[in-house]
Amino acid sequence: MANRFKIPMMRDTYDIYTKLFDDKELVFNKNGSRNSGNSYRNAFWVGYDGLPNYLFENACYAAYRAGQDCYKADPQYRNAPQSI
């Protein structure tokens, strides 16, 4: 997955979320639902599910793009249950 962001904060956010996706214990709750407890994680899952995007020039957009790229690499979790 290529990080296309030039702004350091967005580059870092993208890198963090693509790396986090490899650690399924951080990405999913113990009951198997998605961990979407903050706006960045929610943006990641919105991108993963291919839903409409977030505002550009916002760090959440970097998490959204990371979700899109993680889906391309590993699509098996699309539409997994969300945590409440």
Which value, in Å, is the CA radius of gyration?
A: 12 Å
Shape: globular
- Helical proportion? 40-55%
Helical element count?
4
Give the overall pLDDT as a whole number. Answer: 83
The tally of strands reads 0
Q: What's the SSE pattern?
A: HHHH
Low-pLDDT stretches: none
Q: How far is the N terminus from the C terminus?
A: 30 Å
Strand content: under 5%
By secondary-structure content and strand pairing, the structural class works out as mainly alpha
The main sheet comes to: none
Notes on the protein architecture:
It is a single chain. With 84 residues, the chain is mainly α. Helices cover 50% and strands 0% of the residues. It contains 4 helices and no strands. The protein is globular, with a radius of gyration of 12 Å.
Summarize the structure.
With 84 residues, the protein is mostly helical. 50% of the residues lie in helices and 0% in strands.
